[in-house]
Amino acid sequence: MNIEELRLYCLSKKAVTESFPFDEETLVFKVLDKMFLLTNINNELSMNVKCEEDLAIELRERYAAVLPGYHMNKRYWNTVRIDGSVCDDLLKEWIDKSYKLVVEKMPKKKQSELENL
């Protein structure tokens, strides 16, 4: 997966926007204004994704490319180096889970709004 494939996959999800709220290098993807993925466009390709706490630890132990979330709450966020050691299908699965976790934490009104888009 390269940066453009990552970008297009994220944007294919419902109600997703992209922006650079922190600096000119950190591309952030949000669903209804809530972050679900961050990536740095100028360095080695990686992504920060939200994860269930127990699964986050398990993935770090299983995959060398998965690290505690850089500049994030390390209980719930992982940084994943996209270096070819993890297949694209698995990367997409982790993106999907991050998106879903963020949506599940939204108020019911926002969830309903998303469903009606």
UniProtKB/TrEMBL annotation:
Keyword Zinc: no
Gene Ontology MF: a single term: DNA binding
A Pfam cross-reference name: YjbR
Keywords carried by this UniProt record: DNA-binding
Keyword DNA-binding on entry: yes
InterPro entries (UniProt xref): YjbR, YjbR-like_sf, YjbR/MT2646/Rv2570-like
PANTHER family (alphabetical): CYTOPLASMIC PROTEIN, CYTOPLASMIC PROTEIN-RELATED
Full protein name: Putative DNA-binding protein (MmcQ/YjbR family)
Natural source organism: Marinifilum flexuosum
